[in-house]
Specification:
This protein is α+β, with helices and mostly antiparallel strands. Helices cover 25% and strands 44% of the residues. The radius of gyration is 41 Å and the shape is rod-shaped. Helix 2 packs antiparallel against helix 3. The chain contains three helices and 22 strands. The protein has three domains: 184 residues, Elongation Factor Tu (Ef-tu), domain 3, CATH 2.40.30.170; 69 residues, OB fold (Dihydrolipoamide Acetyltransferase, E2P) (Beta Barrel); 70 residues, Orthogonal Bundle (Helix Hairpins).
């Protein structure tokens, strides 16, 4: 039995030393810290960033109101709010009966004026022959020739009137001028629209890929923001997703709100813009430069309120050391103060209340 007890003790000691687990109990007996291994701060490059708040907006000119140039009854409406349309796609159609009646009348007028012109042409040719032989007065010959010219002009006018009606007939079908998403529908099937003074709006379309981000940057930070700076931002709807972007422009004129001077920074959204909607609020980080720094894995840094700290190995076990952190680059965090390159920092520490 003694042999079995000694063997069990050896196994337990071996397991304890193999895991490399450190335990520290404070004098009050309230904290336990554990770490599986240690790391040292390493030198690397991190980005300096300007943080700001922004708003997702539509680009200027990306919202198009589509209406009817003709008065009439809405015969068919093919879209609803949220529908996606392609450029040239049929959105709506008004009743074409009045236009068809006008077209039939214009075509009849063309035939009538054409017949009148043909008769005037025959009279003018006959007058030329008779006039050349001196059989009719010269004035009568001129009158017949002028009648032909007048009838020819009326015929040409009737052709233009017919073409104008054909153009109006095309306006019966209302097509999307751009590809995009229908944001609003302001009329319904069966309604009568009047286009006497202004063009009534049928739908409003937002162009595809028309969103951009506008961030308000404080005057103390704006000098570091340049066109082409990479940007990362999050929105409340997707707090765990980073959206990439790039600075497109910096407003030359300030925006002053409650005495605070800010500058509008316009940012092009490079990916997943279809997940965003206008007027969403964003937390923006603009990368302005890179600098050398001492880095530790972010898992080694703990927080107690506003105080950041790490655990390092000491003569009597793990010791807690306060640190000042800076920018974060992936899973590494900048350590501005508190840790030297020779410190052995415990990896993956944790705390449990006892």
């Amino acid at each position: 039995m003694a042999r079995w007890g000694i063997a069990s003790l050896v196994v337990l000691v071996a397991l304890g030393s193999g895991t490399g687990l450190y335990f520290l109990r404070a004098s009050a007996g309230s904290r336990v810290v554990a770490a599986t291994r240690s790391v040292r701060a390493q030198e690397g490059r991190v980005a300096s960033a300007v943080n700001a708040t922004g708003t997702v907006r539509l680009r200027v000119g990306s919202e198009v109101r589509v209406g009817s140039q003709l008065s009439g009854i809405v015969k068919k409406l093919n879209v609803t709010v949220g529908s996606h349309v392609e450029a040239g796609e049929l959105i709506a159609q008004t009743d074409d009966a009045p236009i068809q009646a006008r077209l039939a009348q214009a075509e009849a007028q063309v035939q009538l004026d054409h017949a009148t012109m043909e008769r005037a042409s025959v009279d003018a040719q006959r007058a030329q022959r008779l006039g050349s032989e001196g059989l009719i007065p010269f004035q009568q010959q001129q009158d017949l020739e002028l009648q032909f010219e007048e009838s020819k002009a009326r015929y040409e006018k009737s052709l233009r009137d017919q073409n104008a009606v054909k153009v109006d007939l095309q306006y019966v079908q209302i097509r999307a001028p751009i590809g995009g998403t229908v944001a609003s529908v302001s009329t319904q099937e069966g309604e009568t629209v009047a286009a006497s003074f202004t063009t009534p709006t049928f739908v409003t379309i937002i162009r595809d890929n028309s969103l951009q981000l506008v961030a308000m940057v404080d005057e103390t930070d704006i000098a570091n923001v340049k066109r082409g700076n990479p940007v990362r931002f999050t929105v409340d709807s997707y707090p765990s997703r980073d959206f990439p972007g790039i600075v497109a422009s910096v407003a030359p004129k300030a925006t002053i709100v409650s005495g605070v001077v800010n500058y509008e920074v316009t940012i092009d959204i490079k990916q997943d813009a279809n997940l965003l909607k206008p007027d969403m609020t964003a937390n923006v980080s603009i990368e302005t430069a890179q600098h050398e720094a001492w880095l530790l894995p972010s898992a080694t840094v703990l927080h107690d309120g506003d105080q950041a700290f790490v655990y390092v190995t000491g003569p009597s076990g793990p010791q807690r050391k306060p640190v000042v952190v800076g920018a974060q680059s992936g899973d590494m965090v900048e350590i501005k103060k508190g840790v030297s390159p020779t410190d052995e920092v415990l990896q993956n520490p944790f705390e449990d209340k006892k």
